[in-house]
Structures are given as structure tokens and as C-alpha cells.
Specification:
alpha/beta, 4-stranded mixed beta sheet, globular
Length: 404
């Protein structure tokens, strides 16, 4: 799909999209609770639908009514998957569910796109060699068989917090206590805290013993709950940027006391509009493309903690560097840093490319409200924010969508 964005000034109010990060976690907790849970404000984006479909394949009744989802949980230790679990392109779905599938002690196949399975899964394969569970992987699928034993799990802290979260979901079902030790450096801790918070809603305890050690008591039971998914700061950030670029956009539905790591977006966008700051984004890597875009339209910026950007849907640092050059902006990408230099910002002379990455597409769309232009591969937004272009249009920005 090609999106044509007209230059204009965004004005009005929107409601922040629901957090898919929180929705994934609540759906999985509800699936393991003995009884019916009700989760309100659940996005119908591709990634969240992937998690819902996988839970159904595990035998969990998941019923959607609008943005409310009712889940009747099962005992995963006796689950019997009816079909392969199709994770599509959702890294959260795949990495969260591998340990959960190990709990049932049966052969479980999880399928995913080739692009997703090229992203790191080595944490689970290494743990399999150490802990004795079965793990095999090819270009399109992962096959696992448990059980997942209690004990100590050492996990690299700088690859993805999703591996830690996956273990946090499964280990409470074991009869004995477990610990998860994060090998420094530790990044994206706020995402681990989101998992701990979701577990607490289901009556399950996990806690930090120190800055890199998590304690998980065994023999716990998930309990049904009623919860509301809060607004997503990483999605709302694109509209905060529109205000910083001269618009006036009010955003409803955000929890000002949220523990989302991406809540820092307000502060970071403000700093970028005032000058050329040095910003650490190791705890909020999803903000990277947007922050690079805001820096390009303003005074530039220096970003550290960027190494994990190459492990996302695209190599986000290199992809943004390539597209920002179309606006006349110079970008230097190093192993763990990105420098965006202030430049004579101008309209791109050719269509931009979304690199199959929802956050790249949305970041570029924000910039095109200044200059006008088009983006190829714009359909990628359906991964996390299906109505992104509608919200942009509702704010007075001209948007035309074409099937290519």
C-alpha cells in the first residue's frame, strides 16, 4: 500500500491507541487463570490478534466483543494444542509463548514469518541445551517440548526483555521456586515491570531481589480478573511529535502514572525541540524511529543504547538513516549510537520506503506532514496501529491510500 501524505498542520484531539504490550500480557495471564477474565480496550492490531489466535489453538476460549475480550482460562499443564500456533510477525507472541508451551509437556509447534525467525531466539535454544527441554527451529517454525523445570535461569539482559517475560509467565506453574538472573548490561527493564504488573492482576507474584535478579515462587495459581488496557505511549508519541512540529494535538486515554518505559517520550520530544540533546533509548527502543525523525526536523541529536534497533522488524537505525537522507539529513550509525545532524531539511524527491516496519512508516508520516510526500509499504501500520492514518486524517492532515 502507498500512502500519500499532504503537508499540513495537525489540530484536534485523539484517543491514544491501546497498548499492545499490555494486551499481550493480560491475555496470556487470563488464559492461565481458572475462570473467566474480562479485558477491556484490547486492540485488534495484527500482533494482538496473533496472540489471541495462538491461545485459541492451545484450547483457550477467547471471545472478542468490540474492544472487550473474554477469556476462559485453562490449566496449561494439561493443554493439548489442536494445531500449530501461528505467531505471524509478532515477536512478543512467539517469545512469550515458548515457555508457556513448555509447561504442557507435549510437542508444540509455533510458526512465524521468516523475517521474525531471523530475529534472535538463541536465548531459548541455549537454555534448552542447559535445562534439557526440547527446542528446534527452522526457517518457518519452532518446535518445543517440556517440561520447563524450576531452578536458576541466566538470561542476557541486552537482547530482548521478551525472553524474561516468557519465563515469568511459565515458572510460577512449577512446584518449586525459581530465579532469573539477568547478565549485564540490562536494558528494557520497564517491559519486565509491565509483565510483573500483569501477573499481579492475576494474583501471581514475581519480584526483583536486586537490580538483575528476579525471584519467582513456585506452586502459584493464576486467578481470573477484570482489567482495562491503558493507552499506549509509544503509539501516542507520534501525535505528540505533531504538536512539537507546530500542530496542536490533545491526547486522551493515557495513564499519567503509567510504568510504561515509553512514557519518557514527552520529555525526550521536548528536549529535541529545544536543542540537540544526548538521549539514552536502551529502555525505550520503540521510540527510536520517531525520535530520529523529530531530531531531523529540528536541531539534530545524539542517541545511545541503540544496538537493539537492528533486531526489530527492520534494522531501524539503518532504515531511518536511509530515509532521512531523502530529506537532506545526515545520519551516522554506530554499534550502539546514532547521531542525527542538523541540516537544511527539504521535501523528498522520491517515494519513501517503510522497510516492512510499522514504526518506520509512522515516523516518516509525521515528517511528511511538514513536506508532503509518499510512503511505500504503508500497510505495515496494521501490526500495531491499524487506524493510524484515519487518526491522522481526523486531525486535518490529507491522507490518500492506494493499493500497489
Amino acid at each position: 500500500m502507498r500512502a500519500v501524505i499532504k503537508n499540513g498542520t495537525a489540530r484536534g484531539r485523539i484517543t491514544a491507541p491501546p497498548s499492545k504490550s499490555i494486551a499481550h500480557r493480560l491475555l496470556i495471564c487470563a488464559a492461565m487463570a481458572e475462570g473467566e477474565s474480562v479485558i477491556r480496550g484490547v486492540s485488534d492490531c495484527d500482533d494482538v490478534e496473533a496472540t489471541s489466535d495462538c491461545l485459541r489453538a492451545m484450547g483457550v476460549p477467547v471471545i472478542r466483543e468490540g474492544d472487550t475480550v473474554k477469556v476462559r482460562g485453562i490449566d496449561f499443564r494439561t493443554a493439548s494444542p489442536s494445531a500449530p500456533l501461528c505467531c505471524r510477525e509478532s515477536g512478543s507472541t512467539l517469545r512469550f509463548l515458548v515457555p508457556v508451551c513448555l509447561a504442557c509437556g507435549k510437542n508444540v509447534m509455533l510458526t512465524a514469518s521468516q523475517s521474525l525467525l531471523r530475529r534472535p531466539m538463541s536465548v531459548y535454544s541455549a537454555l534448552a541445551a542447559e535445562k534439557g527441554y526440547m527446542y528446534s527451529q527452522d526457517e518457518t517454525s519452532v518446535m518445543v517440548r517440556g517440561p520447563l523445570q524450576s531452578g536458576e535461569y541466566r538470561v542476557p539482559g541486552n537482547i530482548s526483555s521478551q525472553f524474561v517475560s516468557g519465563l515469568l509467565f511459565a515458572l510460577p506453574l512449577n512446584p518449586h521456586d525459581s530465579t532469573i538472573v539477568l547478565v549485564p548490561p540490562v536494558e528494557s527493564r520497564p517491559y519486565i515491570d509491565l509483565t510483573i504488573d500483569a501477573l499481579a492482576k492475576a494474583g501471581v507474584k514475581a519480584e526483583w531481589r536486586d537490580d538483575r535478579t528476579l525471584f519467582v515462587p513456585g506452586s502459584q495459581r493464576y486467578k481470573p480478573f477484570d482489567a482495562q488496557v491503558e493507552g499506549d505511549y509509544s503509539g501516542a508519541a507520534f501525535f505528540m511529535a505533531l504538536s512539537a512540529l507546530g500542530g496542536s494535538v490533545g491526547i486522551d486515554g493515557l495513564n499519567r502514572d503509567s510504568i510504561q518505559g515509553d512514557r519518557v517520550c514527552e520529555e525526550y520530544i521536548s528536549l529535541l525541540r529545544k536543542g540537540s540533546p544526548a538521549l539514552y533509548i536502551g529502555d525505550c527502543p520503540d521510540l527510536g524511529p520517531l525520535l530520529f525523525a523529530v531530531a531531523a526536523a529540528g536541531h539534530g541529536g545524539v542517541f545511545t543504547g541503540t544496538s537493539r534497533l537492528r533486531l526489530k522488524e527492520s534494522d531501524r537505525a539503518e532504515a531511518m538513516a536511509e530515509e532521512l537522507r531523502c530529506f537532506g539529513t545526515a545520519v551516522t550509525v554506530r554499534d550502539d549510537s546514532v547521531v542525527v545532524y542538523p541540516a537544511s531539511f527539504h521535501a523528498p524527491q522520491e517515494p519513501l520506503h517503510g522497510h516492512g516496519d510499522h514504526r518506520i512508516v509512522m515516523a516518516l508520516a509525521v515528517l511528511l506532514t511538514i513536506t508532503g510526500g509518499s510512503i511505500l509499504g504503508a500497510e505495515a501500520v496494521s501490526k500495531s496501529f491499524p487506524d493510524f492514518f484515519k487518526k491522522l486524517s481526523d486531525l486535518g492532515i490529507g491522507v490518500e491510500l492506494y493499493d500497489d
